[in-house]
Amino acid sequence: MSDSKYGLLGLGSRGPAVADVRARLASLPADQLPEGAGLTDPAVAVEVFDEVLERAVRAFQQHKGLIVDGVVGVETFAAIDGARWSLGDRILMHTPGHLQRGEDVVALQERLNTLGFAAGRVDGRFGPETERAVRSFQRSYGLPGDGSVGPETLRAFEDLRRSVSGGSATILRERELIRRSGHSLSGRTIVLDPGHGGSNTGASAHGLVESQVVMDLARRIEGRLTAIGVSVIYTRTDSTCPTEDERAALANAAGADLVISLHCDSHDAGDASGVATFFFGRDRATTWSAVGEHFADLLLREVVARTGLANCRSHGRSWTLLQQTRMPAVRVEAGYLSHPEDAARLADPAFRDTVAEAVLVSLQRLYLGDDDTATTGVLRLGDLRAFLAAHG
Question: Which candidate among 2, 29, 237, 270 keeps its CA 20 to 30 Å from the CA of 165?
Answer without folding.
Answer: 29
